[in-house]
Amino acid sequence: FFHNKLHNSVFLKTNWDKEYVGFATLPNQIHRNSVKKGFEFTLMVIGESGLGKSTLVNSLFLTDLYKDRKVLNAEGRLSQTVGITQKTVCIEEKGVKLKLNLVDTQGYGDTLNNQYSYKGISDYIDCQFEQYRKEEVGLERRHIRDNRVHCCLYFISPFGHGLRPLDVECMQALQDKVNIIPVLAKADCLTRDEVNKKKNRILSEIDEYMLKIYQFPDCESDEDEEFRRQDIEIKKSVPFAVIGSNKVVDINGRKVRVRVYPWGVVEVENPDHSDFVHLRNMLVRTHMQDLKDMTHDTHYERYRSQWLYKHQHTDEVGTSHTVTHTHTIFYSVHCFPLN
Amino acid sequence: FFHNKLHNSVFLKTNWDKEYVGFATLPNQIHRNSVKKGFEFTLMVIGESGLGKSTLVNSLFLTDLYKDRKVLNAEGRLSQTVGITQKTVCIEEKGVKLKLNLVDTQGYGDTLNNQYSYKGISDYIDCQFEQYRKEEVGLERRHIRDNRVHCCLYFISPFGHGLRPLDVECMQALQDKVNIIPVLAKADCLTRDEVNKKKNRILSEIDEYMLKIYQFPDCESDEDEEFRRQDIEIKKSVPFAVIGSNKVVDINGRKVRVRVYPWGVVEVENPDHSDFVHLRNMLVRTHMQDLKDMTHDTHYERYRSQWLYKHQHTDEVGTSHTVTHTHTIFYSVHCFPLN
Predict the structure, then answer these.
(1) Contact A262, B192 (CB under 8 A)
(2) Which family does it belong to (chains A, B) (predicted)?
(3) What gap in Å lies between CA A200 and CA A162, rounded to an integer?
(4) Closest approach of chain B CAs to the CA of A32, in angstroms?
């Protein structure tokens, strides 16, 4: 209590004065706490090499995550399986800390036989769920590391006539484990017409194959006009046609990320040139928490209940002692949700 | 003789007058004959779907070969094997007829497992050699259909970091059968810097894997300045960074093939924008005959001698009669080269 009072002294004081019970400060407390603790977000990028995954992430978070990257040559890639690497970068903006974990899938779709390219990715996601589950039922729960993948940007080649077989297979394998957000990569090689056609084709194929991509929540009725307009723009942009760049130039005093062609200059953040800003707004400014909630409430819960079901079944054949134990865990987690 | 006289009367007349023997007219006769017969050329295009193969061919020959094309969706492509289609178009320009056979490789690199994508292509090329060989040793040799592949444009993705494993494997499988000309596809998504880097990387990988691509013959010393300049330009451009377009607009009265982006207009035939003109000059204006000669003298001869060697060996175990027969063929063909 003393510890709490110390930190919330300002709020408590005002509230004592007005003789409130005080629970109105709870949102503020959560706000303060979250700022103090900082945020954590895990983003996965999937797509063939060369589709600009690294460049886009650098552009999104204004960092340079890939300074010491080594690109393998064809021989290296022949024998290579999909390698999953995780990098962490801490970004601070106006006192708010974001710990960004970036999970990259190098070599995906790169080998001669891509039949099992997505198997390793699927295993990785499960592995993070399992780690979280173990920590969640353990003794020390205050510092659970959360490496669960909250969002997966799936890069679709602008050259495909819609989705490729590998895209369909991979999305089907991952759709119940992670929030998939499809992006149309390197959109600077597509004219406006082509972008629209590809988007329509991709959307109709997503429909046809019943692929489950991340569904944006409906906009709350009490949001302001600007937010609602932005929300509509974001929803309309799926799959986001994106352009990334590591080249920053100075145009009339403002720093702009560009790609310079002999026939013109592409500005990454110009909404007439690409959906980059919509994707960034969505990911960072408006839907980050929803992506985390979806991960915890839907994908992780699915994993956990499957785990429980599987272990219950195994144990019914074995000893009845363990069954009771499993039930206890199930109960306790439901009583004390962690988020 | 009468037939000849009728056709070459103009040349014969002048030559009789000057009391020449007349063989100086041979080049002219060949010229006249070839114009009368017309030219035949078979071009193969290999590359993942979506790399602009059809569009480039349309742009090169100013035709529309692909009006009734149907693009398969992901499901269709999952089960699909590489389908080889051949189309023929006759083009006439200033009285010279060109019969252009276009061999397309649909579905290449498109399936989940691409391990044997190039097998069908290799078989196709052999099949054309075999057909030619059979006709060549047959009775009626005046109208041999020549469907041998004279040139293969190999489309390299602009998104690969150099060559992909599939590219290397495929080129290795085809390099002794056909003249491979590598092109860097859809170069309008690469800045000038990126084009240069990719080209260097591709060339050094071609070197590293000892891939045999088409070697341009040295320029004859008696060619004029303009031709030599153009020849240097062409050789420097390999692998040709190309852009194709089916969209023709009118710019200041001249018809231009373009791609219209929000940030600028790409002109296909502008040498500052791509190597398209160099590729077209090479293919149509300067090196078409050399490509045909290389096919006949090197690739086809290799096929034929392998065939002879194989059948000689088989037959030594069997009857000696057939061996003699094979030898006769070998001899006769060498005495009467067809070209």
Answers:
(1) yes
(2) Belongs to the TRAFAC class TrmE-Era-EngA-EngB-Septin-like GTPase superfamily. Septin GTPase family.
(3) 9
(4) 45
Beta carbons within 8 Å of B333's beta carbon, 6+ residues apart: B136, B137, B304
Q: Please report which residue ranges of chain B form alpha helices under DSSP H.
A: 2-7, 9-17, 26-37, 53-61, 74-79, 119-136, 165-174, 192-208, 225-237, 276-280, 288-294, 301-317, 320-335
The DSSP secondary structure of A106-140, one letter per residue, reads: ETTTTSSB-TTTTHHHHHHHHHHHHHHHHHHTSS-
Residue ranges covered by each domain of chain B:
1-37, 39-335
CA-based nearest distance B36→chain A, Å: 42
On whether ipTM exceeds 0.90, the answer is no
Contact call for B163 and A74, based on CB within 8 A? yes
CATH architecture of A39-335: 3-Layer(aba) Sandwich (3.40)
Pairing mode of beta strands B248-251, B254-261 = antiparallel
The partner residue sitting opposite B264, judged by closest CB among A113, A162, A263, is A263
Q: Which residues of A touch B169 (CB under 8 A)?
A: 112
- Establish, for the pair of chains A and B, how many residue pairs have beta carbons separated by less than 8 Å: 140
Residues in CB range of B152: below 8 A, 6 or more apart: B43, B44, B45, B46, B174, B178, B179, B180, B181
Sheet of B254-261: strand order equals: B248-251, B254-261, B264-267
Partner residue facing A74 (CB), from B168, B265, B266:
B168
Burial of residue A284 (CB within 10 Å: 0-12, 13-18, 19+) is middle
Instruction: Tell me the one-letter amino acid at A275.
Output: D
Count of CB atoms within 10 A of residue B239's CB? 24
- Coil, strand, or helix at residue A310? helix
Q: Do the Cβ atoms of A170 and A121 come closer than 8 Å? A: yes
Residues in chain B with CB shorter than 8 Å from the CB of A172 are: none
Contact A159 B162 (CB under 8 A): no
Query: Measured between alpha carbons, how far is A108 from B112 in angstroms, rounded to an integer?
Result: 12
Contact B74 A192 (CB under 8 A): no
Q: Which of A80, A108, A164, A194 to mutate to test the interface with B (most CBs of B within 10 A)?
A: A164
Angstrom CA distances, B137 to B42, B133, B134, B327, stand at 22, 6, 6, 12
| Model pTM above 0.80 | no
Whether residues B159 and A186 touch (CB distance < 8 A) is answered with yes
Nearest by CB: B189 against A78, A169, A186: A186
Interface test with chain B among A80, A189, A243, A260, by most B beta carbons within 10 Å: A189
Q: How far apart are CA A171 and CA A209, in angstroms?
A: 10
> Do the chains contact at B112 and A111, CB–CB below 8 Å?
no
Q: Which residue in chain A has the smallest CA separation from B165?
A: A74
B chain contacts of residue A66, beta-carbon cutoff 8 Å: none
Whether B263 and A264 lie within 8 Å, measured CB to CB:
yes
> What is the rounded end-to-end Cα distance, in angstroms, of chain B?
22
